[in-house]
TrEMBL record:
Segments forming domain Calcineurin-like phosphoesterase: 17-115
InterPro entries in the record: Calcineurin-like_PHP, Metallo-depent_PP-like
Pfam families: Metallophos
Molecular function terms from GO: hydrolase activity
Provenance organism: Lentinula raphanica
Descriptive protein name: Metallo-dependent phosphatase-like protein
Entries under PANTHER family matching the protein: SHEWANELLA-LIKE PROTEIN PHOSPHATASE 1
Amino acid sequence: MYFDSQIPSVLKPFTRHIVAVGDLHGDLPNALRVLKFSNVINDEGNWSGKVDFFVQTGDIIDRGDDTIKLFELMEKLREQAPSTGGVVLSHLGNHEWMNAIGDWRYVYPSEIKTFGTVEDRQRMISVGSIGSAWASNYTVASRLPLHPYLGLPNTPYPPVRSQLFVEPELDRLEPLETTHMHELDLENGPLSHAALSFVHGGLSPTYEALAPFPNRINDLGTSLLRKLQRREQPPPHPPYPYPGLPASATTEEHELYDANGPLWYRGWALEPEEKVCVDVEKVLNVTGTRRMIMGHTPDFHNIVSRCNGKIIIIDTGISHAYGGVLSALSIHYTFTPIVDPEHTGAKQRWSEREVVSALYEGHQKVVADEQREVVGDFAV
């Protein structure tokens, strides 16, 4: 039972609302419809202020003619969101990377005309406005804490601990300071995994560069994108030969882009339930998260939830190129103090609830509704 009138001023309920949308593939009208019914934008197409985080998991480009307009929309929302305390998190999908490489197999001739010429398009996605946005505002993966106690989006997991002073003669570390205790709690405490991972393809259980998450993956993405954008742009394939990654690309950068990497991996969608529900536990543990949310592998009927919502695949073929359903994922997180007047001075007790819903035009379906009690000093 909650006694609002007896909650100390420091113990206030906390809420966070997240909306995630999958592959858009060159279709602005359908994208606007999704963002409207999920309350990301208002009737005028501007940031509504009704969500805290809007996450897009990549593949905005290809298969349609609205590439420029879609990326302009994302940057407009990114600029507007902070006015209400909101944040836009954007990811590069395998199709953004294909275009950066020079693999234009899914680029419509009509879409090229919206840029002008092939050269104009190359310029815009390398050093022009779209390429600059990719380099500055897009990542390969994100870790989004549900509670601010865990830090800002993309705070690394495991946490980067302050370096402890070693006394060689005594062969021991200095005692942990308060800051170190907090860092340990961020890794192993009751809220340590109260976070979500977002990526385009999937975080494979055999992919080597998971930790620290998401920094290691994103550092590789930053390095590889820089090499692609700064090289002399090769003539696109087709009709010219496939250019591949730059000669300077490292082994880890090749692994980032291969079938087992976070841009292309499809195992969470295609492997049997008994396998993925075992494998997912390792990845959630390494990344410090509760759920993995990704696009890339479409189901044209609904958002796919596996293993009680630990794996959620949100690509439903939104673009008219696929003819799938319009959809978005909504996560409502609440963290409410439980006040028991008979136990004044006891440890803080909180009710944590996370409701995950698949949103469609005209209806929605609850994917997960989980609640638990948490004990600890997590006042915000």
